[in-house]
Amino acid sequence: MYLTITSTRAPATDLGYLLHKHPGRAQSMDLPVGRAHVFYPEATAERCTVALLLEVDPIGLVRGRKSTTGGMSLAHYINDRPYAASSMFAVALGRVFRTALSGRCEQRPDLVGVELPLQLEIPALPTGMRSGKPGDDALVRRLFEPLGWTVDGTVLPLDPEMPGWGASTFMSATLTASITLANALSQLYVLLPVLDGAKHYWVGNDEVDKLVRAGGTWLAGHPERELIARRYLAHQSDLVLSAVGRLAEVDQGSPESFDNAVPDVGTDTTRDQADLGADRPPTLGAQRVAAVLGELRGAGCARVADLGCGEGVLLRALLRDPSFTEVLGADVSARALALAEARLGLDRMPDSQRSRLRLLQSSLVYRDDRLAGFDAAVLMEVIEHLDADRLPSLEQNVFGAARPRVVLLTTPNAEFNVEYEGLAGGRLRHPDHRFEWTRTEFGEWARSVAERYGYQLRVAGIGVSDSHLGAPTHLAIFSRVDAASTVSTAQRQVQR
Predict the structure, then answer these.
(1) Whole-number percent of the chain with pLDDT over 70
(2) What is the topology classification, in CATH, of domain 2-201?
(3) CATH architecture, domain 258-495
């Protein structure tokens, strides 16, 4: 396995200080995965290149271990381990460049945090694909390009002398970016195992800590953070859920959103928006809560699940009304749930209220049977925080598996953004929003969901509406078709 890192920021030999490896000396060390060598093919003031070579003996790695197949595996002799960058190479990076990876440089602290013009060359990089064909570098680009890397390279043939055999699942890659060395190393440390897809060691709870620690802030805001977590953690759903929740907590530490900065625009979770009795006009957040409560009461819903409850704005309003006999708050973020617990004052809450409330950590893109059996599910300003390709999973888990009688869903109206200063040029209302829909886009999506899962649909708006732009917030009310009689009965009871 082989990697080179080149810097062209003069004096380029400063790279040696950051790596804690002198350009004039070759160094070697033994690691659990093989023997690593560090050397500098070139080291001038204009251009400095460091190389990391990892020698792996795949037979030696399994020598003395009991075979799980009852015999000698041919895969021990024929594999890509000595050549292709993998989770083993990530281990070598972490050991050999430990200090640089942590972002420390005692001799030259002024270099820490400085962005360098870096070029990484990896002769054999896994593409993350199960079968190879020309152009199968899409996953590599999806992982590296959002981080500012320019990806150049070609998918390698399975055998250059046998073109009929087609392409391999590896590429020769050159990555270029202006980036700090610590970030470059941490991104390689995380993404090499993601592309490899076959970690050579046991994946347990400590791997979640490694992922969150190595990912820092760059992973929290990555559009593919969930895919990265799944592949890094070997698709172990409990570990993935924990990692996604912790990364969401990091992401929430970003600067205040436009929503919070302008109370009339978005979700202000720092105040109780349920009090509509104030003299000042109610904020949009308060109007959303009032609209949701009105729909729930009109449908006669007693058992309500707030999915993506955040810090508990809607939960507080639900608990104030005794007609809601059971209230569930679910969120992927453990930090958000802890804040909800604190802001709701669970330790001081009367028993009559506390007995009606349950909080749990859950992700809407994974099936969770604990979310089933409720009269209503509310997704208030939730879906826009998901990547669009994750919406089918949410749809299946909410409308297909949990299948409440009523689903209430709100999301921003993109057309209305022109009314707000600072949202010109297509800017979204929150840095974590993955998309915001127009009325047409929202209506088409909602109708398709209703048709596929057997729900009746009604679409409305929340907030002061403009004749041309519509209302600031979309509202969709989904009513399960096979529960129509139950709805009618409940509505009659409410009217009495």
Answers:
(1) 82
(2) c-terminal autoproteolytic domain of nucleoporin nup98 (3.30.1610)
(3) 3-Layer(aba) Sandwich (3.40)
